[in-house]
Structures are given as C-alpha cells and as structure tokens.
Backbone:
C-alpha cells in the first residue's frame, strides 16, 4: 500500500534548536512575502529566503520541503488577510460582494497573488475558510437549495474575480514598465486611434470610445461584479 504523503498543513514543525537565527514557518513565509511584494514571484526562492533570514538554505528544508510548498504557504497567508466575516444582516449578494471586494484589496496589495489565482485548488486552512464563506453565502438561500446551485454561483463569481484581478494587475504593471499612466498612454496612442476610428471600420468601438464613461478601476470592478451577481440572481430566482 502506497504511503500517504503528509501535506505541509498537517506536518508539524521541527523542534526548535539553538541557532544564530531562529526559524519557523511563519518567519520563512513572512520573508518570502516581503520578497514577492517587492520584486514579484521571480524573486522568491528558498536560497533567497534563507539569505534574508541569515540562515543556510538546508535549514529551510526542515520546514518547507519544496518551493511549491512555500508558494502554498504564501498563498494561504494572503487568504488569511481576507476577512471572511459576513456583514451583519447581509443577504447572499452583499456577502459575496464583500468577499470579492476584500479579495481585490488583497490582490492589489500582493500583486503576485493574482498570478496564482485560477490554477489548482488552494487547500490551506485560510483558503478553505474563504471557500466556505463563499459557498455558505448562497447555499440554502432562496433559489439555492442544493450543493450544485451553490457551486455554480461560486464558480461564476470566482471566474469573474480571477479574470478581473489579473487584468487590473497587468494594467498596473504595464504602467510601471512604460512609465505611462492611463492618461499619458491615451495621449500617446490618441493620434493613431483617431486615425483608425475615422476609417469607419469600427463604428461601435468608435461610439463607445467617444460616448461611454471611463470610470476608475474600482468602479469597473464593482460594475462587472454586479453584472455577475445579477446573472446569478436571475438564474436562481426563487
């Protein structure tokens, strides 16, 4: 019979021992978070984390077996910053809106977090609490009588949040890389876009560019979120 692997969440930390620099998973994750927040995920390695903690890399392997485990711990640490508390008196829409808004706030604080959303399921205790809060907001609410309905609603919400956050983070990175904010970029691209739209080949796009409002990223996120929640409500109306 194959031996069941022990996941990092259930593996106890090694006993503490006297050393010039004391280690723990909490300290290791904190150092990795600082590196990722400053320079992105490419800056994170067990060797670099060990250097930040003034410890030999081999000592870290007693706490974290692989870089994937370190990333799992980092992801769960960010989930731990996202409050799962349901606003008092909130219905399912308000509860899901609060979770999505808090998730956006965390992703903008830790931009690398958006890169790791939407991949394999996150199973750390804080990630599980986030999933529980999402599902429990709809499960049993009017129109959401079974597990399939709750999962469908949660899936639609998560798909929107992941896509919206990745786009917003990508735009922020592009601004930093080019040195152009949104308005400066529009001024630089304006002459070309004016010529392209004046050809008459893009009439609807031209109307939207000239007539539609261009709100802030936060307003765009909220408007898209409300569209998703409206769709969920229409599908599962009691």
Residues:
């Amino acid at each position: 019979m194959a031996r069941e692997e022990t996941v990092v969440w259930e593996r106890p930390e090694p006993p503490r021992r006297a050393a010039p620099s004391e280690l723990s998973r909490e300290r290791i994750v904190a150092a990795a978070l600082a590196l990722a927040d400053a320079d992105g995920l490419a800056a994170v390695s067990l060797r670099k984390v060990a250097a930040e903690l003034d410890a030999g890399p081999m000592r870290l392997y007693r706490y974290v077996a692989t870089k994937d485990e370190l990333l799992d711990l980092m992801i769960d640490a960010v989930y731990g910053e996202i409050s799962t508390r349901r606003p008092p008196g909130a219905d399912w829409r308000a509860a899901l809106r609060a979770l999505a808004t808090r998730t956006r706030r965390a992703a903008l604080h830790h931009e690398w977090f958006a890169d790791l959303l939407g991949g394999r399921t996150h199973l750390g205790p804080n990630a599980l609490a986030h999933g529980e809060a999402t599902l429990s907001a709809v499960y049993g609410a009017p129109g959401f009588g079974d597990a399939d309905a709750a999962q469908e609603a949660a899936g639609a919400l998560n798909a929107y949040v992941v896509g919206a956050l990745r786009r917003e983070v990508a735009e922020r990175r592009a601004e930093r890389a080019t040195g152009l904010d949104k308005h400066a970029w529009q001024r630089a691209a304006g002459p070309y876009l004016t010529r392209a739209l004046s050809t008459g080949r893009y009439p609807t796009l031209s109307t939207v560019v000239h007539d539609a409002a261009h709100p802030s990223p936060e307003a765009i996120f909220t408007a898209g979120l409300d569209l998703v929640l409206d769709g969920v409500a229409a599908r599962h109306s009691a």
